[in-house]
Predict the structure of [Ribosomal protein bS18]-alanine N-acetyltransferase.
Amino acid sequence: MRIRPSSSDDLATILIIESLTNKIPWTEQQFLSSAEVGHHSLVIEEKEGVVGFAIYSPIVPESHLLNIAITPSNQGRGLGRQLLQKVILQNQLLGVKSLTLEVRVSNNSAISLYESEGFLKDAIRPDYYSGVVREDALLMSLLIK
């Protein structure tokens, strides 16, 4: 397993992972726009190829985790935790003091992961996620020392 910066060659795989893990997946254009504006992007790779990704936007002293996902067949193996820890470390090296994110209130496994890494529940943003049934977002933050 290795974690590395993503490249344009990873986009097709990232789009597949996104479609498998997100109720309202980002479009190819959203990923391209994210890269164009300078968001940071990492992938986690195993022998069979890329199995996850993370995208974050540091504007020191803050940073925002925009998207993180692991293929369903690889979830529960600690890969998401390793990827999240790498995001936290990279932000720390950039001088970031606070990392924030939104997560669906129904995504208990992600919320548990974030809490276990020190994130705090800050607030609820009502009807944040669109779809047939709108869903609230839990806002979370991590103070980075």
User: Anything to note?
Assistant: Residues 45 and 130 are 31 Å apart (CA to CA).
